[in-house]
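Batch job 17 of 40 flagged for manual review because the log was empty.
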Amino acid sequence: MLDSGGGDILWAGILGKLNCYSKLLSDYGKGAILMQESYRLGIDIGGTFTDIALFNETTREVTSLKVPSSRTNPGKPVLEGVSKVITGKGISPQAIKHVVHGCTIATNAIIERTGVKTGLILTKGCKGMLEIGRFETVSLLDLMSDKLVALVPKGLVKEVRGRILHSGEEVEPLCEEDVLQAVNELSREDVKSIAICLLNSYINPQHENRVKHIIEKAMPEAIVLSATEIWPEMGEYERAYIAILDGYIKPLMDAYLSSVEEGLRNIGIKAPIYVPKLNGGVTTTSSSRENPVATVTSGPTAGVQGAAFIAKSLGISKAISLDIGGTSADFSCIEDGEPAYSTATRVGGFPVTMPSVWLRSIGAGGGAIAWVDPTGILKVGPQSAGADPGPICYGKGGTQPTVTDAYLICGYLSPDTPFPGEIKLDKNLAEQAISSIASKLGVTTLEAAEGILLVVNAMLEREVSALTSKRGFDRREISLIAFGGACPTHAHWLLDELKLQNIIIPPYPGTLSALGGVLSDVKQDAVKSLSQDLDNVNIDKLRDDYHEMKEKLTAWLKGEGISAKQSYILMSADMKYRRQAYTLDIPVSAAMLNEGTSALKRAFHDTHERIYKHHDEKAIIEVVNLRATIIGTLPKVELKTLPEAEEKTPKASRTTEMYYKGRKHAANVYQRSALRHGHVLSGPAIIEQEDTTTILPAGFTAEVDKLGCVIIEKGDNRD
């Protein structure tokens, strides 16, 4: 037992600590107690809304926010949204330890042709390459459609003499006088960026390196990009566009990322900032500035990663992810918790032959504009009202009816419920807009509104059907992971028409793309084109090639600030039968390389048999590309689980009326925040939350799982 003197000292110490805590509380509010907690911050700029997701690594809670995007100043809503979330939670900015920011700056610049003036240097005799392309048409169904207009006009394409064979042998030296002349001409045209793509430079970059050195010395203010340095894969046309696109968007991305990074630092966030990549990983802002083409479609890619996380958490083997925002609907495929990948994608119609999460996008978002063509056919999109002015019901000056206006008319959305971005929906304006469509079609306003939704559904149904057929999926066994601000509102149509197994609505569907970014690992790819018959491949040289790629990737990861102890490397090879049009991606291990080419042959034949149901062991196999991917793993996260529901049926907050399949239905309205694990809902019902609204028509049921996912089924789909 302490004497009075010791007790006084002890109490003085305790009171001193309480006073200290009191000061922290006055400085930071309730968040002072959370000072030891750490957070991950996800940001995603969409065409209509900018999404913020704050993940508490200690409590596993997610705080989400949607604010209207700004086309003229995209960074402004980012900083305002982040500040609002931090202030609302009462946390210190220093508690944020990890930031991932996906944006549409690069993609929009490519689609809208607003990048910097770019020149191109090619090998003599190749000047028409961009116009010739791969003899593709914009539309396979319209043979008279215009060809894609090249990003670099022919007047800014310059040729230089010099030739390297496919073997890497130089047969004509580089003409440096041609290079200097090209530089002078491009300088007079005031180009800001110059891309270099010379024949066969992927196998021997000697000429490209020399051209780059000459340009940098003669025109130091220009951005100079060697296609081979960025991505040394065979295919001159595709390699050229990677360099063109990289230079075309580099100044814009550099300026934007620098501005946002400075803004976040001014707020007090000192954490490293990452940007999602095409390949499903993330990279630092410095790497994004250096190689911005690798980060195009960063937002949709992060969304697929978020959907894959949900699929893996629920043990779903096959799923389609569908992200419907304000501008577009983005589809992808998930198997065994992993997104489907491709070795190439397209952005704005231009090829980007780099490893990427497979994505397909159409203009069918909540802001898609409805219109009647000259023949009297109702159509939707691809034009969008965007964020400013947005749909007519936003009351911000919109003049054309949109999908969101149709949702409001059908009762899916309520003018009395707060809309993301603190927007007050005006039903009278929406009715005026839809009535103009109705009068042209000779139907009622309600019928016109539902007609708009049916057109959108037909567009979505076509894409999902094509995707499941291509992947060989039985739709009755497929889960649709529905996210984005508009998808939970619309997904029931797809469940009904396509007879899918179920629909999964994640806990934070409206901001899943922002959350998906903080769930992603750091990732980088390497490629080496080989194009040799497997029988002629030197296995020792093959090992050396893989070793060289692994060393390069390890050095890159070290530059990202992640220890190699936290990483692993995957190896593969693009292989095909000789004269076959398409390659197969064959995983390669160290054990296979030690065994020799026989192991590679066996792996290719087995994969070909599994996919195409046949193989030919007498046919010659060609190795086209060697690939390696390094993955720097970041600490994994788990979402907070919900408490068990005390009763099976939750209490409705109110009732409303919604229009579905030609008639009105009385519907219960539930608040997502009040739902618990085990709750079961029966339609007609509407589930409201801050970032989206979920619709449950008559005949549909929904059950809430332990993660808070709403799993929707339709009775007759299970027959």
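Reviewer: the log was empty due to a logging misconfiguration, but the result itself is present. The longest strand covers residues 522-533. Unflagging and moving on to job 18.
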